[in-house]
């Protein structure tokens, strides 16, 4: 599992948690994500600067799911966020509204 720390691009995204699920809006107005509870936990950990290993281990433990399942979901989640340019490598600069 990767040790990369991704950051949320503050100029590209705004987000809020509603009923334990994150709603993410791209600044371009064309990107919208509504995350389930486990993806929301991943998003929150990304926002706090956790590595992929930390996220997979924590989510696996907290939700009682296998690490291989969470790792697969994490990789797909990261790929979707990167595709929409909502995350990048670098220092943490996320904004929460």
| Order of adjacent strands in the largest pleated sheet | 2-3-4
Number of domains: 1
Average of pLDDT: 86
The CATH homologous superfamily: Coenzyme PQQ synthesis protein D (PqqD)
The helix/strand series, from N terminus to C terminus, equals EEEEHHHE
Q: Give the C-alpha Rg.
A: 13 Å
Alpha-beta content class? alpha+beta
SSE blueprint:
Layout: E1 6-8, E2 13-18, E3 21-26, E4 32-34, H1 37-47, H2 52-63, H3 67-83, E5 87-89
Antiparallel strand pairs: 1-5, 2-3, 3-4
Helix pairs in contact: 1-2, 2-3
Characterization of the model:
- With 97 residues, the protein is α+β, with helices and mostly antiparallel strands.
- The chain has one domain (6-89): Orthogonal Bundle (Arc Repressor Mutant, subunit A).
- The chain has 3 helices and 5 strands, in the order E-E-E-E-H-H-H-E.
- The strands form 2 sheets. It has a 3-stranded antiparallel β-sheet with strand order 2-3-4, with helices on one face. A two-stranded antiparallel sheet has the order 1-5.
- The chain starts with 5 loop residues before the first strand and ends in an 8-residue tail after the last strand.
TL;DR?
It contains three helices and five strands. It has 97 residues and is of the alpha+beta class.
Any key phrases for this structure?
about 100 residues; 5 strands; Arc Repressor Mutant, subunit A; 3-stranded antiparallel sheet; 3 helices; two-stranded antiparallel ribbon; alpha+beta; globular
């Amino acid at each position: 599992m990767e040790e990369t720390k991704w950051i949320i691009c503050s100029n590209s995204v705004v987000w809020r948690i509603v009923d334990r699920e994150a709603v993410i809006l791209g600044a371009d107005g064309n990107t919208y994500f509504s995350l389930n509870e486990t993806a929301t936990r991943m998003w929150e950990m990304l926002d706090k600067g956790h590595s992929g290993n930390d996220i997979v281990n924590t989510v696996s433990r907290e939700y009682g799911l296998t690490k291989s399942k969470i790792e697969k979901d994490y990789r797909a989640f990261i790929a979707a966020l990167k595709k929409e340019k909502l995350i990048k490598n670098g220092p943490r600069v996320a904004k929460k509204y």
